[in-house]
Amino acid sequence: MFKILEKKLLSAGVYYMKVTAPEIARNRKAGQFVIVQVDTDFGERIPLTIADANADEGWIVLVFQAVGATTYKLSKMEAGQELPAILGPLGNPSKIEKYDAPVVVVGGGFGVAPCYPIVQAHKAIGNKVIMIICARNKDLLIFVDEMKAICDEVIIMTDDGSAGRQGVSTVPVKEICESQCPPAEVIAIGPPIMMKFCALTTKQYNVKTTVSLNTIMIDGTGMCGGCRVSIGGETKFVCVDGPEFDAHLVDWDNMMARMKTFKARETEDYHKCNLELAAEKLAAEQKK
Length: 288
What we know:
Elements: E1 2-11, E2 14-20, H1 22-27, E3 33-37, E4 45-54, E5 59-65, H2 69-75, E6 82-83, E7 85-90, E8 103-108, H3 112-124, E9 129-135, H4 144-150, E10 153-158, E11 165-166, H5 170-177, E12 185-189, H6 192-203, E13 209-212, E14 228-231, E15 234-237, H7 238-241, E16 244-246, H8 252-258, H9 263-287
Parallel strand pairs: 8-9, 8-12, 9-10, 10-11, 12-13
Antiparallel strand pairs: 1-2, 1-6, 2-5, 3-4, 3-7, 4-5, 13-16, 14-15
């Protein structure tokens, strides 16, 4: 049922995968995610945000970075193969409101991909959308053409100035907040440090700011407790209470500290996957 229709490399370690999932495609809303299982036996379940979908054709798009054992295995699958399990849509949909002022959407790294359905939803109700796409360099930019096709304005920011303007996301966010037409809402999705400083910037101007904390999720169903965060002093679980929250209420330092919990294990498992791949390649060569 979950057949891979298309797979491509978007940037270093970041993959685009279009998968058949008709029920999910018909029912998903902007901001929601799915749980993907790559192995049938004792396979890890990973949450991935739905980056695009087509209800008529029955497919969804997943964009992910190969950073751990499961995403590494997923990155090795090709078009024509089938995923054993995809569960969803999960999570609370984005709150899409009609505004007279523009909506500014900030996407950092591969966090640009989950911004895409949110932008689509805002454009569908007639909102003006200014998209800010940020990356370390031009080679890490993704979804630029897709965003240019639907947004009213697209601003490219790279750390090294190799594409667009040189600088970080907070530079254009600050400029727009200080303009004659400040944004009605800023939505930021990307590395936690980027979202934190976007929130600190917009707070000075009292601009409503929403962030997606999907990067901290683990099992995606609220059972493991790994996505526990502090929002306005209250404990929330990203996968069931979110994944979107008021950026000005997030305890960013606590969240970023918690995200380091499994870093050593992820690195170890990723290393093992590389060793297994090398061993398989050697074994295949020896058989020839």
